[in-house]
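Q: I'm writing up a methods section and want to include an example of the input and output format. Could you take the sequence below and give the corresponding predicted structure tokens, formatted cleanly so I can copy it straight into the document?
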Amino acid sequence: MVSLDQTVVAVALDPMAHSLGLTTFMMHGVVLVYVLALAAFVPVGGMLARRIGLLTTFRAGAAVFALASGFCALVPSGDAAEPYLLAVRAVQGIGGALMMPVATSVITDVYEEHERGRALAVYAGLAQLFLVLGPIVGAVLTQLLGWRSVFLVNLPVGAACLWMIARARLSNRAGGGPLSAVQPLVMIFSLVLLVLGLYQCGVWGFANARTLTVLATGALAMAVAVRLVLRSRHPLVDLRLLRIRPYAVAVALTFLVQAPQLIVLVHGTVYLRQAMGLSLLATGISLLPLVAASAAGTFLSGYLLDRFRSVRVPVLLGLTLATVGAVAWTAVLPSREYLWQVPGMLLAGIGMGLPTPALSAELMRAVPPGKRADASVLRQSIRQLGGAVGLAVAGAAALAANEDTADRAGVITVGAASAAFAVACCVLAFTLPLAAFALPRGARSARTGGRGSAGRGPGLPSG
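A: Here is the clean output for your methods example:
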């Protein structure tokens, strides 16, 4: 459900905007609020899993996600559409955030060490499969049944998920302990203000007093949240792990890689639909070079990591291909010729798929085994935050470049799409030399590079 939602909703954005009368500001908001909720509540999901049990948390997340999806399909027309849709999309993101930290832990509990790598590879493979199928599924559902069907499809899937979990008779271990409300509230408040300030600067202007006030308040709240977490005996998330340099480097690069991935997916989809005037089904098919190449890059990453025993190979190769591909794709956007876009899409897709699994393996290798669950929660939260920040900055650039009439009509012009793509190119161009400088040099030893520790097994799950 979580993987499918990333690409299904992107295809449905244009018909949704036309049906409900959404502006381009709200089109971005529909995606942004979901990703922001994922980032903000992943630590809450990890905290609940430790306190009340893995399966209890997972069931709650699946139920919330499915029910919120159903309510997304019931969004009314008129003035109430925008606040309603933002609210239920945020709740949907919260449901996904409750599931994400639990999934890998459940698989780790169920399978023995010698089976775990294969099980995690299947898990990651299915996630990538649904990521690839998303554009086609979204296009077919929207064209045949309307855009509301892309949300309704999660109801039977969620019901099947809960039924299978009930039959699986898995352990619902819980460590107990107190549940902190202050830490999550301050952390969520700070993230919302920071991302909102970045997005609103496309409307208010970066030097506007309102923009600076929101960003300054968000930064102050974040400083308070970090202090609360570091001083707590039961922290929301273990920020002390960032003192481990290889882990901190891998997390920072994961943050930076996630941003351009979501930018090109969302803005590329809307560009194909609106600027090129493709049908829904043609839009879904046209996205396949990007998402299929990304899935191929994910699987190739594990092979390169095992073959060369160095995280630098898949990460630097991926960032190089992604940068070249994103620049090439951006350069041909004004031509509106699809065939000229395919080479850039392929290079960008495979390049963006390569770094994340290798970085996941590197950061898991860098932390003690007893801290891997906490490391995974922190990594997932920062990764989703990277997507939210990237979408906010790209959305601000697109809003600043978009024409006022187009904005009111819910249309993103070619110039606005190019501005959003330029943000992705700049992030990639910045990340490549940073990775070359910061990543460890030399090959890993066979002892630390095998699948049983931090090789392909723990590294593959990218959700």
